[in-house]
Amino acid sequence: MLQFPTELESKRAMLLEQIARIAPTLQASGAKSEELATLAPEAVTALREAGLFRLKLPTVTGGAEADPISEMLALEEIAYHDFTSGWCTMVGATAVGSLGAFLPQAGLDRVFAGGAIPTASISFFPAGRAVRQDGGYRLSGRWRFNSGIRHAEWVVAGAVVEGTEDENGGRPLVIFTALPATDVTLYDNWRDVVGLKGTGSCDCSVEGYDLPEHLSFVWDLLKPKPRRGGPSYLFPPFSFVAKEHGSVAIGAARRALDELVEIATSTRGTFRSSKLDERQVVHRQIAEADLKLRAARALMHSRYQQLYDKVLAGGLPDGADIADVRAICVHATDVAIGVATMAYHFAGNTGLRHPHILGRTLRDLNTAGLHQVMSDTAYENHGKFRLGIPADPLA
Questions:
Q1: Which residues are paired to 131 by β-bridges?
Q2: In this structure, how many other beta carbons lie within 10 angstroms of the beta carbon of residue 100?
Q3: What is the rounded CA–CA span in Å between residue 43 and residue 59?
Q4: What is the pLDDT of residue 379?
C-alpha cells in the first residue's frame, strides 16, 4: 500500500504526482461513468491505488491526513480531469476520514480489520431514527445522496437518537452510524437525473437494524472530539466539508474555461466569419472568468489557511468562522457555475453534442450547486455576522 510522507510539502507533492499519473484514466472515464450512472471501475481502481480516498484519513490509520490547502489542491486537480472522480473522492475521503478519526477502538478494529482501508460513502443529513437498546441502537432510516455507494464497503449515515433532548441542551443527540454496505437496501434511483449522474448517488435504507454502539460516533457540530488525528479534525463538520465543494467546483470550472480556450484557438464555425479568438467579446469573457476563478480560489485558500493557523495555535473555529467559510465556498461554487455556463454558451455546437465535457460539466456543476444545501442560509448567516446580528451557523 502506498505510504505518504509526513512532511507537508513532500506529502503535497506526492498527492499531486499521483493525480498526474492517473489523469489520463480519469479523463477517459467521465463519459463512461455518466453512462453507467456510477463511477467507472477503472477510475475507482486508479483512485484507490493512488491513495486518494485516504486523503482525509488520519496518518495513524494509514491515511494522508492532508492539511486543508493540500486537500483543496488535490480535489481541485482531480475534478479538473474528471468532475465525477473529484466528487466521489471528496465524499469517499470524508467518509473514511470520519470513521478513522471518530470511531471508538472496537469500531475501528471492525471497519479497518486486518489493517485494510475500506472505501466508504456518507450521507450527512440525519434522516435516520435510532432508539437506544442494550449494546447499541435500533436503527431505521432512508438516506439520499450516497455518492459513491456502489463502490463503497461501508456507509456512514446520520441519525437522530430519540428521547435525548433533555440530556443534550434541548436538541436531540445526532450520531453517525457505520453500516456495512452489504447490510443496506440500495435503490436504483440515480439514473434519471440531470447532473452528477456518474456519482451513483442512490438512496439506501435499513429498517429495525441492530447497530452495535461501537459502530456509531458523535461528530459535534461546534466542538468535535476526535479520537485520532491532528488539528484538521477539530474543524466542525460544516467547515470540514465546505472546502471540498468549493475546490471541486473550481477545478471543474477551470477545465471548462481551458476547453473553451482550446475551441477558440483551434476551430472555426461553419457559418462564422471569424474564429472565437478574433472576437473581442470572447477576450473579455475569458479574462473575467479567469480572474473570478483565481479570486474565489485565493479567498478560499487564504481563509482556510487562516482558520488552520488558528487551530494550530490552540483555538477552535467559532460561529463566525463557520459561517464565513461556508459562504466563501458557496460563492466559489456560484462563480464556477457562471464560468462553466459562459464556456458552454460560447462553445456553441461543439459543447452541445453529447457526451462533450462542456455539456457534462455544465450539468454536473449546476447539480452540485443544488446539492450544496442551504446556500442561501450560508450567505444569510455570513451577512448577519458581518452586521453583528445573532445568527445560527448550524442552520
A1: 138
A2: 28
A3: 24
A4: 85
Q: From its phi and psi, is residue 208 left (phi > 0), alpha (psi between -120 and 50) or beta?
A: left
Report the alpha-carbon distance of residue 199 to residue 43 in Å, rounded. Answer: 11
The candidate with the shortest Cα–Cα distance to 346, out of 335, 337, 358, 356, is 358
Judged on CB neighbours under 10 Å (0-12, 13-18, 19+), 51 is buried
Q: What is the pLDDT of residue 267?
A: 79
Residues of the chain below pLDDT 70? 269-273, 371-375, 394-395
Nearest 5°: the CA angle 122, 60, 229 is 65
Report how far residue 350's alpha carbon sits from residue 357's, in angstroms, rounded to the nearest whole number: 10
Return the beta strands (E) in the chain as ranges: 120-133, 136-146, 154-161, 174-180, 185-186, 202-212, 216-217
Residue with cell 464560468: 339
312 Cβ contact list (under 8 Å, min separation 6): 231
pLDDT of the residue at 272 = 65
- DSSP-assigned states of every residue in 246-287: HHHHHHHHHHHHHHHHHHHHH---TT-SS-GGG-HHHHHHHH
Residue 345 forms beta bridges with which residues? none
Rg, C-alpha atoms of the chain = 21
Q: How far, in Å, CA of 372 to CA of 360, rounded?
A: 18
Alpha-carbon distances of 359 from 57, 120, 157, rounded to whole Å? 33, 29, 32
Q: Render pLDDT for 275-301 as a digit per residue (tens, 0 to 9).
A: 787 888 899 999 999 999 999 999 999
DSSP state of 234: G
Strand partners, 60: none
How much is the pLDDT for 372?
Answer: 59
The pTM score is 0.95
Q: How far is CA 291 from CA 184, 197, 347, in A?
A: 45, 30, 20
